Amino acid sequence: MGANGHVDWGRRQDVLDRLDYRAVLGDLGMEVVGTPSPTTGWVKLRVSEDDTHPSGSYNIHTGRIKNRRARDAWDGSIFDLCKERKQLAGVGDAFAYLADLAGVDIGGGGRRRA
Predict the structure, then answer these.
(1) How many CB atoms lie within 10 A of CB 34?
(2) 11-43 residue pLDDT tens
(3) Per-residue DSSP letters for 2-62?
(4) For residues 108 and 98, is the Cβ–Cβ distance under 8 A?
(5) Where are the domains of the chain?
(6) Which of 45, 48, 54, 85 is deepest in the core (most CB within 10 A)?
(7) ∠84-110-81 over CA atoms, to 5°?
(8) pTM, full prediction
(9) Contact predicate 3/107, CB 8 Å
(10) CB–CB of 21/58 below 8 Å?
(11) C-alpha to C-alpha distance for 66 and 63, rounded to whole angstroms
(12) Domain spanning 9-102 has what CATH number?
């Protein structure tokens, strides 16, 4: 977060580009299956241990996640999912958390430079 407590969302793409999305999504309970499409950036996800086939997708360019499971369909961003699963106060906190993991400086004290 910036010096005044605001998130520098201008670094969003830097965070997405540098993020080890396989590790982060794995930590959030999802398994990446295969490699991203070279044209669209979508990669398939197994969103639950009891899934026999991928039931979700993640876009490496936009950070969007879609879960098509009938009983718990979900559509949001990796920042939303991180906020929910890590029980953070807000999406800005999730952005700061993921920026730290990606090694991107979003203006807060102590963060590494991109």
Answers:
(1) 9
(2) 899 999 999 999 999 999 889 999 999 999 999
(3) -TTS---GGGHHHHHHH--HHHHHHHTT-EEES---TTT-EEEEE-STT-SS--EEEETTT
(4) no
(5) 9-102
(6) 45
(7) 10
(8) 0.80
(9) yes
(10) yes
(11) 10
(12) 3.90.580
